[in-house]
Amino acid sequence: MAPFRRLRSGLTWLVTFVYQNVMANLAVAGLVVLRPRLKIRSGIVQVPLDLKTDAGITMLAHSITLIPGTMTVDVAGDRSYLLVHVLAMDDPAATVDEIKRTLERPIRGLLE
Predict the structure, then answer these.
(1) Which residues of 47-79 are buried (b: 16+ CB within 10 A; e: fewer)?
(2) 62 and 71 Cβ atoms separated by less than 8 Å
(3) Integer Cα distance of 107 and 89 in angstroms
(4) Most buried among 31, 56, 93, 97, using CB within 10 Å?
(5) Which pTM does this prediction carry?
(6) Residue 88: CB partners within 8 Å, gap ≥ 6?
(7) Whole-number Å distance between alpha carbons of 106 and 110
(8) 4 pLDDT higher than 80
(9) Tens digit of pLDDT for each residue in 27-81?
């Protein structure tokens, strides 16, 4: 893969990761601190993986866990999916799509 493409993917991941961290911190603070009586609908989603390398899967799992309100719970034995706990989730399909689009895709461009 061309070095320029890897650099672009790395920068995309970094900007997205920082943005999502800031927004997730505000959202979690709003849910937990400002509206403590709000019913929170948490859940676990299965995120199918397109990543093939250990480095890519590890980077995605840690990126998810470092974003407040989400945590990687497990990796399938055959590495075909991640189980991710989400603190506030309205639409599981949209959550999976967002993880794949904003985190997995740039990591694929960077590491694979």
Answers:
(1) bebebeeeebbebbbebbeebbbbbbeebeeee
(2) no
(3) 23
(4) 56
(5) 0.85
(6) 27, 31, 40, 41, 42, 69
(7) 6
(8) yes
(9) 888 887 887 777 788 999 999 999 999 999 999 999 999 999 999 999 999 999 9
